[in-house]
Amino acid sequence: MFTGLVESTGKITALEPQGPGMRIVVDAGGLADGVNIGDSIANNGCCLTVIAIDGTCLAFEAGPETLAKTSLGGKQVGDLLNLERSLQVGNRLGGHLVTGHVDAAGILDERLDDEQWSTFWFKVPQQLTRQMAPKGSITVEGVSLTLVDVEAERFSVALIPHTLEVTTLGKLQPGSIVNLETDLLAKYVEQQMSAWSANTES
């Protein structure tokens, strides 16, 4: 479990094909301190397990499903990733509850910059917007954000200068593919509403 509050960015130093999957090595810098093999780290919002440690470099394995359905499949050596260690009991929950299980990939549809501030519009599968509401929460590339407007097939978020500077979001341009995870509570609400609707129709 994570919060969507990015601790640091890490740089991909190696991408090594392994059968249908990929071994991803990330230089995590100071975030690697205290990390152990078997720990869970969110990489752009995708929960991966640390399989090896070499100094500040952490190695992960990503399967074909992860590579095909998240933004990790399009990454290159030298690309930056948003990193967050898993939440510990007793930690402050400054963002919102994030599982690290990506629901779908979205596309940056429009970027509106106003000096150092930005509004991003992301195009998404319509089934995801049913789990969104203005002022609700959304995770984009592992970053906890507040929804501004929600339409049938896209949504917008407002990004402050700090977020644009310390995460990978500031480098996104229209057409960029991003990992999305909707709010955990919204998933349960939609599931219960769908079950209720099916029961009333039968």
Flag low-confidence runs: none
Stated plainly, the CATH topology of the largest domain is called: Elongation Factor Tu (Ef-tu), domain 3
Estimate the global geometry from the Cα principal axes: globular
Major sheet: arrangement of strands: 1-2-5-4-3-6
Q: What is the CATH level 1 assignment of the largest domain?
A: Mainly Beta
Under the CATH scheme, which architecture of the largest domain would be assigned?
Beta Barrel
Helices and strands, in order, run as EEEEEHEEEHEEEHEH
The helix content is 10-25%
Give the overall pLDDT as a whole number: 92
Structural class: alpha+beta
Explain this structure.
By secondary structure, the chain is of the alpha+beta class. It folds into two domains: 8-85, Elongation Factor Tu (Ef-tu), domain 3 (Beta Barrel); 104-196, Elongation Factor Tu (Ef-tu), domain 3 (Beta Barrel). The chain is built from four helices and twelve strands; from the N terminus they run βββββαβββαβββαβα. It has helices at 64-69, 126-129, 161-166, 184-201; strands at 8-18, 21-27, 40-43, 46-54, 57-62, 80-85, 104-114, 117-123, 137-140, 143-150, 154-159, 177-182. Strands 1-2-5-4-3-6 form a six-stranded antiparallel beta barrel. Strands 7-8-11-10-9-12 form a six-stranded antiparallel β-barrel. Strand 1 (8-18) and strand 2 form a beta hairpin. It starts with 7 loop residues before the first strand and ends with a helix.
